[in-house]
């Protein structure tokens, strides 16, 4: 008969586990706090431990888990909590938890978990148990999610922080790929080294090559001094290559060499430069399709695809929307010095039902916008402008749409023979004036709220209004 220890300060939880374990043919051991739990572990040597995060006064579950990894590293520990925060999940997995469950506990899942542990068929590799290399401070608490999809992501982050391997993160625009990359870095031994982000689709090939690998003095016109590239800046830390699917083919060859040999040359140089930067790449494209069409190197794909983390779109994890709303309201309350308490029931239903083509980024922007426009401490449904996004393709952001519209306009604008020499100032002024006018219209002329909506200082807005009113 297998002995299974449950450490939880809630009597009803212990009672439910006791009845369940007896029915399953196991011997239940029950403890209401850390001290009793430790005694049972030392005296009875259970086969599995189910450990709650909140244990009342004294030690919490993380403290006890840390002790267990030292004193009884061979005992699988399943961590439980009603608090589905990312930092708890990551910390538990870093400390060597076998699995992480959120309450209310699904007993069918517990049954399968016990069977898997006892049969030795583990689906994930337990992190090593050297506590001295694990006691990292969490510095990135931006990710939120209690649903199973995000809990799996948190557990994966916890495992990846201890391994210096290449990671590929995929998902639609706005799902939070850079947040995952930062969480991996911030909770790793490299956290005191630089985290450097490079957008591979944001600049022309020659500029991107100089940005990534640097250049020697005199390498091209204007190269008056030697410059380090991002790989050198990130040495010993992490380099995050966003939109890797947009990387030009010639640069894919150079990146492949970095992955294989950890060396490269600056533009205009022939001296090999070593880099110990960990590479985390991200894309919203299907790289396998890009490989099949010849737009992405097959060998580079397999090098990047060593560990794959896929972030689901928000419409596939609607259960996380209420918690995300609470998080963004709390964050915006601090940023805006407001005291918004939440959203109305109708607004919550509307926000949960919406498909969020812009994902978490769009939700955050909608919360910010509603808080700027609201005069109450509860956000009503009419403050959320979701209709404009209904026809937007899932993988396009608002900025990309704006770029597409302005590109069409500027094509004619640039070829007009009557423009004159101040074409740049005229174009920028026209766009800026329209944007300011619309922000003031939406905020009913409130300059402070309009400045917040635009993301600029109020004094800057006042100056712009004065300039365009002259």
From TrEMBL:
What are the record keywords, sorted? Answer: Activator, ATP-binding, Cytoplasm, DNA-binding, Nitrogen fixation, Nucleotide-binding, Phosphoprotein, Repressor, Transcription, Transcription regulation, Two-component regulatory system
Q: State the Pfam families in the record.
A: AAA_lid_14, HTH_8, Response_reg, Sigma54_activat
Q: What is its main location?
A: cytoplasm
The places in or outside the cell where this protein is found are: Cytoplasm
Residues annotated as domain Sigma-54 factor interaction: 143-372
GO biological process terms on file: phosphorelay signal transduction system; regulation of DNA-templated transcription
Q: Which residues carry this modification: 4-aspartylphosphate?
A: 52
Q: Please report the stretch or stretches of sequence annotated as the Response regulatory domain.
A: 3-118
**A molecular function GO annotation:** sequence-specific DNA binding
A single Gene Ontology CC term: cytoplasm
Q: Which InterPro entries match?
A: AAA+_ATPase, AAA_lid_NorR, CheY-like_superfamily, Homeodomain-like_sf, HTH_Fis, P-loop_NTPase, Sig_transdc_resp-reg_receiver, Sigma_54_int
The record's PANTHER family line, in alphabetical order, gives: DNA-BINDING TRANSCRIPTIONAL REGULATOR NTRC, TRANSCRIPTIONAL REGULATORY PROTEIN
Name the chain's protein.
Answer: DNA-binding transcriptional regulator NtrC
Q: Which organism is it from?
A: uncultured Desulfobacterium sp
This protein's gene is called: glnG
């Amino acid at each position: 008969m297998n002995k299974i220890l449950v450490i939880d300060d809630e009597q009803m939880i212990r009672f439910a586990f006791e009845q369940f374990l007896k029915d399953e043919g196991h011997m239940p051991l029950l403890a209401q706090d850390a001290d009793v739990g430790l005694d049972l572990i030392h005296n009875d040597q259970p086969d599995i431990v189910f450990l709650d995060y909140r244990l009342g006064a004294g030690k919490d579950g993380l403290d006890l888990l840390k002790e267990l990894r030292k004193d009884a590293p061979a005992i699988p520990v399943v961590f439980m909590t009603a608090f589905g925060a990312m930092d708890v999940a990551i910390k538990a997995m870093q400390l060597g938890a076998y699995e992480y469950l959120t309450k209310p506990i699904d007993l069918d899942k517990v049954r399968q978990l016990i069977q898997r542990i006892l049969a030795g068929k583990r689906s994930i590799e337990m992190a090593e148990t050297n506590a001295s290399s694990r006691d990292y401070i969490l510095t990135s608490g931006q990710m939120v999610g209690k649903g199973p999809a995000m809990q799996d992501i948190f557990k994966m982050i916890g495992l990846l922080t201890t391994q210096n391997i290449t990671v590929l993160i995929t998902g639609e625009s706005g799902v939070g790929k850079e947040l995952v990359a930062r969480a991996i870095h911030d909770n790793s031994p490299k956290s005191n080294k630089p985290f450097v982000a490079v957008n591979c689709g944001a600049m022309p090939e020659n500029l991107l090559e100089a940005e990534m690998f640097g250049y020697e003095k005199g390498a091209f016109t204007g190269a008056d001094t030697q410059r380090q590239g991002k790989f050198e800046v990130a040495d010993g830390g992490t380099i995050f290559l966003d939109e890797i699917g947009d990387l030009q083919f010639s640069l894919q060859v150079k990146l492949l060499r970095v992955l294989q040999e950890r060396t490269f040359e600056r533009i205009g140089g022939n001296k090999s430069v070593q880099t110990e930067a960990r590479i985390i790449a991200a894309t919203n494209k299907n790289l396998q399709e890009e490989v099949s069409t010849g737009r992405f190197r097959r060998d580079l794909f397999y090098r990047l695809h060593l560990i794959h983390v896929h972030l689901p779109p928000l419409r596939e994890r609607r259960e996380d929307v209420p918690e995300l709303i609470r998080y963004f309201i709390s964050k915006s309350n601090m940023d805006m010095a407001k005291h918004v308490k939440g959203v109305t029931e109708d607004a919550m239903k509307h926000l949960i039902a919406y498909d969020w083509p812009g994902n978490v980024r769009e939700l955050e922007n909608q919360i910010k916008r509603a808080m700027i426009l609201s005069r109450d401490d509860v956000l009503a449904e009419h403050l959320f402008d979701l209709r404009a996004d209904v026809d937007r393709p899932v993988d396009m952001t608002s900025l990309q749409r704006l770029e597409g519209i302005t590109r069409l306009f500027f094509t004619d604008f640039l070829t007009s023979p009557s423009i004159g020499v101040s074409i740049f100032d005229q174009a920028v002024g026209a766009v800026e004036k329209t944007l300011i006018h619309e922000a003031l219209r939406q905020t009913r002329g409130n300059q402070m709220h309009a400045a917040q909506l635009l993301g600029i200082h109020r004094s800057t807005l006042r100056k712009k209004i004065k300039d365009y009113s002259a």
